[in-house]
Amino acid sequence: xxxxxIQRFKMPSPFPGMDPYLEDPINWPDVHHGLIDTIRAxxxxxxxxxxxxxxxxxxxxxxxxxxxxxxxxxxxxxxTSGRPERAQPRGQGGVAxxxxxVRIEPYLQPEIRDRxxxxxxxxxxxxxxxxxxxxxxxxxKGSRGRRALEEKRALLHQGGAHWIEIDLLRAGERHERLTxxxxxxxxxxxxxxxxxxxxxxxxxxxxxxxxxxxRPPYEDLPLDLQRVLDETYDRAYYAESIDYTRxxxxxxLQPADAxxxxxxxxxxxxARTEGEERPET
Length: 281
What we know:
Mean pLDDT: 84
Number of domains: 1
Structural class: alpha+beta
């Protein structure tokens, strides 16, 4: 029996740029995967045939005992069963009674796989540029996720690669030269120029088209991050699954931005309701 395919109506995001509801830890892993896949698709078309684009994984082990980034990865961990084991019967003949113990649920040391993008020279297969979309654990000081990212970045720098970090999370730590400058930012370390370049983005701004450097004599590739985000949002139908009546995920906004978000969402919800109530023609 065949399927009756119905065209689903795609409602755009309420926001002109980054959607802060996507920063929720529940949503972010899926958003991160979607952004990585969409960025690869955009760059692969314009990078070839001299360069090719691959999605790579950086693997590390996290542990609640000594990884400050663990709560950002696995926020809800149950460590006890709640009820103690029953005490053993009282011994006879001078044998001591065993005191009841609380059973501790074993926890795993999860293997975390951070996905990122590498652009390779098609002839030498060397890494030319790496692109990282930051996750919450990458922005926790001293976390294993942050250390793994920094080690990979240092290794690629030594190999002569460019490095791009796309930070679409308001929470977490940033480099001291970036702290307090904007809600979101994208940074580029250019090979051989010794400089750090940045695009600063606020909540009300559309995402920029950034430069993705290659090797001379090839010019930088343009990467339209707003288009990437819009396509990711549409393909996942986030408008249907995100509850925009709930409070924003932390950190809290400044009063002016909070009022702007409230008005923006109300207009969006009114437009969606009107669209759902409009009779079909």
